[in-house]
Design a protein that fits this description.
2 domains
Length: about 250
């Protein structure tokens, strides 16, 4: 569900199975095809950049992620992409990219106002004139966390054929100051006991997002409520934002 829980190789190796290619990836891949240079913040195992390179993208592709184990997977698959360990504080860019993206709801891992401001300022600095910063967050009005329950078990099979069961459980009574605390549990015969990761995601409405973007010198160019580019409605599942320099 989120990248940062995959802090070791055994879990990082499961990430692509848990997060198979879907409509959101198709949406972003279409944007990459139009961009000469791309920075993917929170790239995880780099599925998006790997696919773009595999289908012939000739421009600069850079993936940034704080989890070393995730980048191990990325480098094994595509050493011809720039993979950088860390977050937006480890590197400064000055108009280096046509497109900056944050996929897989990575934006929701920015838990404080300062985290968001730092990320948005870095994204704006990285953009060339006319470039776009594109990211998505879950719409809080859709209350997706209410479906993160232990009875909704996701079953996958590892590369060696070992079955793994994964489920989520929200902690507390739900949304707490815009944040959801939850656990992600992995169980399988390869581990003597289930492995539990504790995570937090922040949910922002469209108005609050726009305020942060304006403060960072970015303006909303387009906004969608789903991956088919449907309009953003009150209970749309996603808030997909395409921003440009103001």
């Amino acid at each position: 569900m989120v990248d940062h829980v995959f802090a070791d190789l055994s879990l990082a190796a499961l990430y692509d199975s848990l997060n198979p290619w879907g409509p959101g990836d198709d949406f972003y891949l279409g944007l990459l095809r139009e961009a000469g240079s791309v920075l993917d913040i929170g790239c995880g195992t780099g599925q998006l950049l790997r696919r773009a390179r595999a289908e012939g993208h000739q421009g600069r592709l850079m993936g940034l992620d704080p989890a070393a184990a995730m980048l191990v997977q990325a480098r094994r698959a595509r050493p011809d992409v720039e993979w950088v360990l860390g977050d937006v504080r480890v590197r400064q860019w000055q108009q280096d990219f046509d497109l900056v993206v944050m996929t897989g709801h990575a934006f929701q891992e920015l838990l404080t106002d300062d985290d968001i401001r730092t990320c948005l300022h870095a994204a704006r600095s990285a953009l060339r004139d006319g470039g776009r910063f594109v990211f998505e967050t879950r719409n809080p009005a859709a209350r997706a966390w209410e479906r993160w329950t232990p009875d909704r078990v996701h079953e996958i099979t590892t590369a060696d054929g070992t079955p793994v069961r994964v489920w989520h459980e929200v902690q507390g009574t739900g949304l707490d100051h815009g944040r959801i605390h939850f656990t992600e549990t992995y169980a399988g015969p390869a581990w003597p006991a289930p492995r539990v990761n504790h995570s937090v995601l922040r949910f922002l409405d469209a108005g609050t997002l726009e305020g942060f973007l304006e403060e960072a010198g970015l303006t909303v160019a387009e906004q969608y409520g789903d991956w088919a580019r449907g309009p953003l409605g009150v209970t749309s599942p996603e808030i997909i934002t395409v921003a440009r320099k103001a």
